[in-house]
Amino acid sequence: MQRYKILSIFLILLFFTAASAGFIYDNALKNEKGRSKLIPEKFRSAGFYSTPRNTQPRFADDRILVKFKPKVSEQSKIEAVQATNSQILKRISQFDIFLILIPQGTPVEEMVYAYERNPDVEYAEPDYRTRITVTPNDTLFNYQYSLNNKGQAIGIPGSPQGKSSADIKATAGWEETTGLEEVIIAIVDTGVDLKHPDLINKLYSHGYDFVNDDDEADDDHGHGTHVAGTAAAETNNNEGIAGVAWNCKILPIKVMDAQGEGYYSWMIAGIDYAVQQGADVINLSLGGDADSPNLKNIIKAAFEKNIVIVASAGNENIPVLYPAAYDDYCLAVAATDYDDLRPDWSNFGPEVDVAAPGVRILSCVPTWFWGPGSLPYAFSTGTSMSTPHVTGLVALIKGIKEWLTATDIMLSLIHI
Fold this sequence. Notes:
By secondary structure, the protein is an alpha/beta fold. It has helices spanning 74-83, 108-116, 170-176, 223-232, 264-276, 293-304, 383-400, 406-414, and strands spanning 31-32, 35-38, 59-68, 87-92, 97-101, 121-128, 184-189, 208-209, 249-254, 262-263, 281-284, 308-312, 330-336, 352-357, 361-364, 377-380. A hairpin with a 4-residue loop joins β4 (87-92) and β5 (97-101).
């Protein structure tokens, strides 16, 4: 795939409570017995893109709204409607407003004018179009600047304020779609908290744990749960946070241990498992320094099955890590901050395709993370946090444009 410069279109900064958590991972590549270990990155975030809405008429062309004056009799109201060859469709009784079907071919403006000239009418107007601006009712949504940045403070009192619209335009995107349950997002990471209140109903299955070789991909670290929450937490449920892909399912796959480290063999097995399970998009918020033909081949195989692979660029201000560096087959995600700027730690290079918010992103953490009685949410920073924003967007696109190939989707995001 042709290489493109970084797109700092999206930006995020989140504030939760007086406490914030940043999962800081060892940036040094560690080797054991000749095997390259994966170094999970500091949590960062990604970008969301919504397409422009089609231009539509400002109002319906076959009906108007009419309110008669309070003392007008019911018979007079009926006669007024009949006099214009119109028909009452509905009456909003609490406000005594009539929805009136006008004669076919009659301009709405003319009919409004005719009713306004009637002394029994208080007012008449077109039936204007409206469109929802989807704002979920999740209790911590206002702190998710990456999804909807109004220039709000990004932390406790004294914290800087974000730049308005430095976000992934999630609310605009949700007007088009909130995702389909049939779309599966594989989170290849440290696992996912299988009992988290914002995730328990979103699981496609309990996945697989390639670290402990069992069929319970539970999270004993925290990184994977945070990533999963950003991509697809249960949304509009009066609890916690909002995920980018409201309705899409999460397939948890554990390939890193409790220290946030793993091996390429685990990652390769995890990606293969995601393909076998029918994943539509794979999130890889992890990376290593070593180029690997095996890793590249499994990435290529997934790509050739039209699975979109989204991978984090890394957090060391160095060239892009693997597998994100496999530019022909991956969307490599760098980070932006709450001012829509590149943080100085975000990795760089021609392989980077998009950038998205990755500074102090609020998302889920395991229910054990803070201890009994605490809320299972925290801030984190890194391209790992940027990546699931892009993953969630890809999942939304997959749901409404299922005919697009992986290449089509990748190019559409790169050319934003």
